[in-house]
Write a structure and sequence with these properties.
With 347 residues, the chain is α/β, with parallel strands linked by helices. It is 39% helix and 21% strand.
């Protein structure tokens, strides 16, 4: 399988008609100024210049803000630039992210003209009350309509959802995942809510009106969501915001995060929790008091089986007095595991 390289071009707050309670796109994207056509060209050329893999697939991705809500002239300018790279054979595809209420047939025909392949919708929740509480400015009906249109026009559909929005519960978030699965996206991003400086949510946090999730709470919810999406073979392409100078430990002076479940290895925490649960369930099904167990997995899964800072190994030992021996086997299918009992307390 060819490796895929995504060239991110951030257009923060361009075209966004709402000020969502949690959002400060300039902080989240790390982009402090709006991007011009020439800025975008420099970003793309710089990325391409650092990609040595001539066989790898390359995609230009316009992230941040609401791309299809930008004035048409600006959209055409940026899409036209990206299309130049496609025509020159330097890039394979284009991806954009936008709001569900900024999609219609006219917009999709424009995107089709410039060979856009993937459209990601910022859904965040499928609960209309929670959407209103977060000042999203759209409803779940908009999500359903936009998703169906995107698929009808032959684009690859992606969704983005959030965990820990004001007044949202784990049940709400599981229901959001189940509702999105029915709309048949090919990919999903899951973002635990962080309290960012300069947002309405920061005001509520400081006033004690909003209590963010802990890392443990966010991991437990995201674990259940990832399992749901994995079961339906929907690609979970991100769990947690990307760690940057701005999105970092709240203790850092450069950080724009003032609260919430930040962790630099959040996805690994989630995937390790899934592996821990799977291994523990298999051990519990064995009719023996296990002392030492060998777990064989593909090398790709090895770090998540061990856990962040050996968390899984340590928990099995401390809670269940089980020693975990890891074996890596390249022939093993990714995501699969083989468990063998090496010792029991009867031995």
């Amino acid at each position: 399988m060819k490796k895929k390289y995504v060239i991110p071009v951030f257009v923060p707050h361009l075209g966004c008609p709402n000020s969502c309670i949690f959002c400060n796109q300039k902080s989240i994207s790390g982009q402090k100024k709006n991007v011009t056509k020439e800025d975008a060209r420099k970003i793309i050329d710089n990325f391409l210049g650092n990609i040595e893999d001539v066989q790898g697939e390359r995609e230009i991705a316009f992230f941040g803000g609401s791309f299809t809500a930008i004035e048409e002239e600006r959209q055409e300018e940026l899409l036209g630039l990206a299309y130049e790279y496609i025509k020159a054979g330097k890039v394979n595809s284009i991806r954009i992210s936008t709001r569900p209420d900024c999609i219609d047939s006219k917009v999709l025909k424009r995107l089709k003209k410039y060979k856009v392949k993937t459209i990601e919708l910022g859904v965040q929740s499928t609960n209309n009350y929670i959407l209103k509480r977060a000042n999203r400015g759209h409803s779940f009906e908009d999500v359903k309509k936009a998703s169906k249109l995107i698929r009808l026009y032959g684009f690859t559909l992606g969704h983005q959802m959030m965990v820990g929005l004001p007044e949202s519960t784990r049940i709400d978030e599981i229901n959001t995942a189940k509702a999105l699965i029915k709309l048949k996206p090919k990919m999903i991003r899951i973002y635990p809510v962080l309290v960012i400086k300069g947002t309405k949510l920061e005001e509520e946090f400081e006033q004690g009106k909003y209590e963010p999730l802990t890392v443990t709470q966010a991991v437990e919810t995201c674990k259940e969501l990832v399992k749901l999406f994995n079961k339906k073979r929907i690609d979970v392409i991100r769990v947690g915001l990307q760690n940057t100078d701005e999105i970092s430990d709240p203790e850092s002076q450069e950080s724009e995060v003032v609260g919430g479940p930040f962790h630099p290895a959040f996805r690994q925490l989630v995937e390790s929790a899934i592996w821990y649960e799977a291994i523990l369930n298999k051990i519990k099904k064995l009719n023996a008091k296990v002392k030492e167990v060998k777990v064989t997995v593909n090398p790709v899964d090895a770090n998540n089986v061990i856990g962040h800072k050996k968390e899984n190994v340590n928990k099995l030992k401390e809670i269940y007095d089980v020693d975990l021996i890891l074996k890596q086997d390249p022939k093993m299918k990714k995501g699969n595991t083989k468990i063998e009992i090496l010792k029991t307390y009867k031995d």
